[in-house]
Design brief:
mainly alpha
Length: 142
């Protein structure tokens, strides 16, 4: 989890801002607001704030998914939920969520990003060539 997860006032503020409709935007959105109110937050990305928000909501029971609910995990992932989001909502690790997704018949590859357009269509973007090269370099040679 994020190094900010133990900062209860910061987490509460992120939840309050998002619930009030503050956009995830770095400039003029939640990132600027949190950075100005909490000097400890040095990030320039909304990603750690999103993870905090999802984890906080999951701890409140909102969006909670049972760890063995394959259909719910597949539906959420195919609907655009990220792996970190699903991990927080199920209490599983990212790898475990990916395994459940695959076992549940998920239609999208587990690597890369899944984007959902406003009309509901999905688009999968595979790993970057740099990420693929790094993964291959770490894999044991056969």
């Amino acid at each position: 989890m994020s190094k900010y997860a133990n900062n209860a006032p910061l987490v509460a503020r992120v939840v309050a801002l998002r619930d009030a409709g503050t956009p995830w935007d770095a400039t003029g959105g939640i990132v600027d607001t949190i950075a100005s109110e909490f000097p400890v937050f040095t990030g320039r990305s909304a990603i750690p704030l999103r993870k905090l928000y999802v984890a906080a909501k999951a701890s409140e029971g909102e969006g909670k998914i049972g760890p063995k609910a394959k259909k719910a995990i597949v539906k959420a992932r195919d609907g655009g939920a990220g792996w970190a989001n699903l991990a927080a909502r199920t209490g599983l690790s990212i790898k475990e969520v990916q395994e459940v997704y695959t076992a549940g018949g998920g239609k999208n590859p587990i690597n890369g990003r899944l984007y959902v357009s406003t009309d509901g269509t999905t688009r999968h973007v595979a790993e970057s060539t740099l990420a693929i090269a790094a993964r291959k370099a770490e894999a044991p040679s056969a």
